[in-house]
Amino acid sequence: MKNLKYGTFAILISDAAANAVLHYAAILAQAGDSDVVDIPTCDTAGCRTWANVVLGPGVPLMAVAAPDDAMEQEDADFVEQLTIRVQSILSDTARHR
Predict the structure, then answer these.
(1) What mean pLDDT is predicted for residues 4-25?
(2) Which of 6, 23, 33, 71 is deepest in the core (most CB within 10 A)?
(3) Is the pLDDT of residue 71 over 70?
(4) Is residue 24 within 8 Å of 88, Cβ to Cβ?
(5) CB 65 within 8 A of CB 2
């Protein structure tokens, strides 16, 4: 598990989701683009919920290790969605060169 630091807030997310968000944010910054992303997380009661964030250049973002959670979800669908968005940006960038 990781705490995704977004401004003054920490969003508890899976390791896979944190890696995907950081990678996507880096690609967006390189492309000078931004996007709104619904990140899977859990509330203080441990119930599944979503955090809506804007990713783009100048948006400070970092992931910090959090205590492991036996209930951590893989978030495979979310990671796949961000991977598709990354590939789309990279292919658009390659086409415009």
Answers:
(1) 94
(2) 6
(3) no
(4) no
(5) yes
